[in-house]
Amino acid sequence: MTTCKDNKCPIILGIESSCDDTSAAVLHGSVMLSSVIASQQVHVRWGGVIPELASRAHQQNIVPVIDTALKDAGVSVHDLDAIAFTRGPGLLGSLLVGVSFAKGLSLSGGGRRAGETIPLVEVNHLQGHILSHFIDLPDRELPHPAFPFLCLLVSGGHSQIVVVRSPLDFEIVGSTIDDAAGEAFDKCAKVMGLPYPGGPVIDRLAAQGDPTRFKFAEPRVGSLDYSFSGLKTSFLYTLRDAVAQNPDFIAENTADLCASLQRAIVNVLMYKLIKAAKQFGISDIAAAGGVSANSGLRTALIAEGAKKGWRVFLPELRFTTDNAAMIASAGRFSYLAGRFSGLDVTPVTRVG
Ligand code: KG4
Ligand code: ZN
Questions:
Q1: Among residues 95, 180, 265, 341, which is most buried (max CB within 10 A)?
Q2: Residue 40 maps to which CATH number?
Q3: Could you report the per-residue pLDDT of 73-132, keeping only the tens digit for each?
């Protein structure tokens, strides 16, 4: 049983609603007591997230999701030391649901002393992904990187290399100048007629394919930044030309296309990460965000780690895509540092 090692173990409710997952989780110190995620299926038929539908689904999901998270954790609103919520980045209408709910709950007088508000802690969604590496489970501690570490943060909206000096000190040293890695997966999947979100589908199909069959452009822009639009265009043109010759080209080659595309995206990600690790002399390397679930990327990180002597930290799969446990985890560090938000806090769609 993982228990609190000191008396600094706040009970924190995390709320995540930045995109298309409504999620709530309760942490006691670093230990996750509960985690509930309602993924919105409404977007699948449109091949991407429709913001208006996302906010409506959050509105429907938020009460039962939070209620279940509290019940699963065996705590009541009165036990909460703080409510951590995603302030941004994300979709405005989606963020508004989580932020407003957090404020309402804070004001509801459910604090530890009757009538007291519950302290609010805002969380940057991207920092939440990174700090998912500091969650423990009731029956076991999970591996935590040591500071400073380097984090490859790859999601549907962002691709960044971040130097993490402390739980409150992040320096983005590389960033995508166009599409994010997850976006590249999703857009290329759409071109092949695969369902949304395309990343996990490509990952699954790639397992049966030949990654050396097709060559796509692997753009390497300056410094530690990323670019994926050239890769996407090269994928699109390859398909367009091949389909002109053979209308069944995609169906006949799906697995090889997926494997080759995945390899190209992973190569692009790894190239700059290796460069950054060398430049900063850091050997604790973590990955975070939805794309860190990718099996090709995970294998490449482990292989490179063995070669370079890195300690590689890969989140459990459930902590790669959007979840509220990571928001509560990040919120815990702000709570311990005394960083609270006022009731006038508003969502921010873009950060930095
Ligand atoms: O972090 P996340 O859940 O949401 C954002 O903050 O964007 O990331 C979602 C992204 C999507 O683009 C999805 O296709 C991608 O993560 N993704 C994957 C895999 N699982 C999720 N991409 C590649 N391989 C996967 N196994
Ligand atoms: Zn995310």
A1: 265
A2: 3.30.420.40
A3: 999 999 999 999 999 999 999 999 999 999 999 998 676 666 789 999 999 999 999 999
